[in-house]
Amino acid sequence: MSIYILSIESSCDDTSAAIIKDGEVLSNVVSVQTAHAEYGGVVPELASREHQMHIIPVVDAALKKAEISTSDLSAIAFTRGPGLLGSLIVGVTFAKSMALSLDIPLIDVHHMHAHVLAHFSELPHPKFPFLCLTVSGGHTQIIRVGDPLNMSILGQTLDDAAGEAFDKTGKMLGLPYPAGPQIDKLAKLGEHKFQFPVPEMKELNFSFSGLKTSILYFLRDQMKKDPDFIKNEVNNICTSVQNTIIESLMRKVIKASVDTGITEIAIAGGVSANSGLRDRLIAESESRGWNYHIPSFEFCRDNAGMIGTAGYYKYLKGEFCGQDITAEPRMVF
Ligand code: KG4
Ligand code: ZN
To answer: Which residues pair with 143 in a beta bridge?
Structure first.
């Protein structure tokens, strides 16, 4: 008999539901909240309200797209954390209520485990063990993945995440939130004209707050000399900043590969959609003999498909949770 899992993702500002059949993603519906753009960042209360509005239509759409009904479901998987409390509560409470009413098991999923396991939402799957650079709006980590339920953090950011570095730079340039995709687009039109210090941290850790400050001072000084500086140089600024972030990320990925001897290398999370990072990973893989893995855009960003994939592996091991489970905004890895 087939295993059908309904999965729910509501950790930040995207409401998503997916149906996974025996590990294969049948549907993966994402409702993107646009209400935050005018505030320059995610407004937590607004995000919870939007999740409440969208969760039922999104689940309904996922079931319809997969052409199944609730009576076919074997289990419900949901993001327990980390994330925004008010956003998580909507998904957790919905999943608990639905599992209770259908009398089926509940599976809690760690959002960052799921970003890594997004590589198993589609083919080909990476071989174990592999290294995964997970780069999102809230996290920057290098993970060693031994098997789907066995992962450890080798290094991570000590302050801002890579996605935050993109978004905060975008804010300084007057670009709408989230600025990552926009910087990616403009960077293609520019040149690496300006030099910023590449953040250097010990071991396999990252830091992006110093870079943010040096960009802020650089822009302030240039604007004093020429008030049209940002307008005239925006493409070159985007290329220079993007390359600096990528250089900092890739130096640590190279070190992690040398230290561990692992040459199966993956990237995951929202920033793995960045075309400069993708190109650089491919180039390094070609020169170093790595086997690289880049998720499709659908599985880079926050989506319930990856939550269902992670849930499927927990289902196979019988790792279920009770109805007393609560959202965990600071869930440990
Ligand atoms: O994984 P994600 O969708 O949500 C979190 O869990 O945070 O990642 C969102 C982050 C944002 O900071 C966004 O600006 C960044 O991913 N992002 C990008 C690109 N697409 C999304 N950053 C750089 N280049 C992109 N193409
Ligand atoms: Zn995420």
So the answer is: 132, 153
